[in-house]
Amino acid sequence: MAVAFSCTPTGNHSPIHLIPEPLSINTDSQGDFMLAVNTAIVISDSTMLPAAEHLKEILKTELPIKWDTEVEKIKPSIVMRYDIALDSLSPEGYILDINKKNISISSGGPSGLFYAAESIRQLLPAHSETGSSVVSVIPGVKITDAPRFAWRGLHLDVSRHFMPLDFIKKYIDYMAMHKLNVFHWHLTDGIGWRIEIKSHPELTDIGAWRKVKEGKRPWQDFEVWRKGDTEPKYGGFYTQEEIREVVAYAQDRFITVLPEIELPGHSEVVMQCFPELLCTNTQGQALKNTGVYCAANPKSYQLLEDVIDEVLELFPSEYIHIGGDEVAKDNWNSCAKCGKMMRANNYDAQQLQSHFVNHFDNYLKNKGRKLMGWHEILEGELSPSASIMYWGGHDGTADALRENHPTVLTQGSHLYFDHYQSLSAQEPKAFGGFAPLKKVYELEPVPEELEPQYTQNVLGVQANLWTEYMPTPQRIEYMLFPRIAALAEIAWSGKSQKSWPHFRNKMNSMLKRYDAMGLNYATSALRPEI
Ligand code: TNX
């Protein structure tokens, strides 16, 4: 396709509204850059290709990607380059210089180039998000940028409600647009198992499907669907091939996929597949299915090791999330086997939990990976190398960080996007809790009172989407947008770059972009008082 020329006068464009806010924006530019028929994207290393391809997509033109060795005659150009000096700023940082003659993008690494492309996207008018639009002018500006946190996460629970593969990719696109870089994929929970495990096909043959029952909240209905059942069947899972596709798709957008396999709790459906993993009384009869693995049954560990082995093949992430939250320990107290184990080791139930978790910490360590779990894994004695995802209220953050584990902050008081966005009676049913846009935006994740020696424990921040009340992709979009924009700014922009009035103003531009993208965002989030 030929690149269109444009006669749009330079300097006549909307204000520069970028979310997340960069370190600095200088608008005393040397004029706007006009795409011309001979414009090319110039690279000097094959690791620049994902960013170059992405920029082509953003500009909606068939710009050639050329090597710097062949560029002499190709002008005007969009030149990507690595600058070692910028690596000290952050490998994800970049300097983007747009002027009449060319566009220069420098970074310490490939992800920085990609984020510069995302910034260029937001310099373009909202209608450039629509398929038919042709981009011709890129406003002149000089931007210097780098993220505050290395971990900028977004979680999605696909257990409570299964989400189609196409939507998972869209979700990753939404993350990339907001410069987020860890997709926490909550693949298993009490209600459904969503990852194909070849050594244990029962987990998806049985565990991925449930009966749909009238009048029951979906997340309360633990009944699995079995052959011969007449009720409608609901659910689904991702094949290993699909998972590889997602991991590669995310990688191209500089997003790490963090898989979560819940243990030892939140596993009701696993117990439906393997009832022999339930705790038993002295007569060997299974105790109630509270969704917790019997901690004294070697088969519990064997099954989970088999699962983890396949997970490690699929996910190259440094961390593997093992859940560890909300473990009902009553059964362990009354289980004949667990009781015996506790007595033999002088354990209480808390310590049995850490016995379980530490087993997998060692297992993962031996395989060159790191364990991460919800902060409840701090109960009992936790291996110092284990990492924490803190989901308590903001008030408890400092204490959690003083425990001295690498920690991702996902405060339940602010970053739970399953909570209500406004007080409007029209708001669709949500889990409870109140997290309107302004409250999310104003979160300072690292408490002021925290002693400096503990701040290094902060890996970064993340928001979580638990889907008990989100049965469709449309509902997920509604709960995610526009709060994802506030998350982006908490995660990327420094404290001094943040300003609510400015952000609120920038949201007007962002909403136009969301409109052009056809997103189902919550308009009520901008009027939380109703
Ligand atoms: C707590 S946070 C949970 C989830 C629920 C969520 C609802 C955490 C680790 N566990 O199982 O879905 O609350 O907000």
Automatic annotation (TrEMBL):
Domain Beta-hexosaminidase bacterial type N-terminal: 17-146
Active site: E326 (proton donor)
Record's keyword annotation contains Hydrolase: yes
Reaction catalysis annotation: Hydrolysis of terminal non-reducing N-acetyl-D-hexosamine residues in N-acetyl-beta-D-hexosaminides
Gene Ontology BP annotations: carbohydrate metabolic process; glycosaminoglycan metabolic process
Source taxon at top rank: Bacteria
GO molecular function, one term: beta-N-acetylhexosaminidase activity
Domain Glycoside hydrolase family 20 catalytic: 149-494
Family to which this protein belongs: Belongs to the glycosyl hydrolase 20 family.
Protein name: beta-N-acetylhexosaminidase
Organism: Saccharicrinis carchari
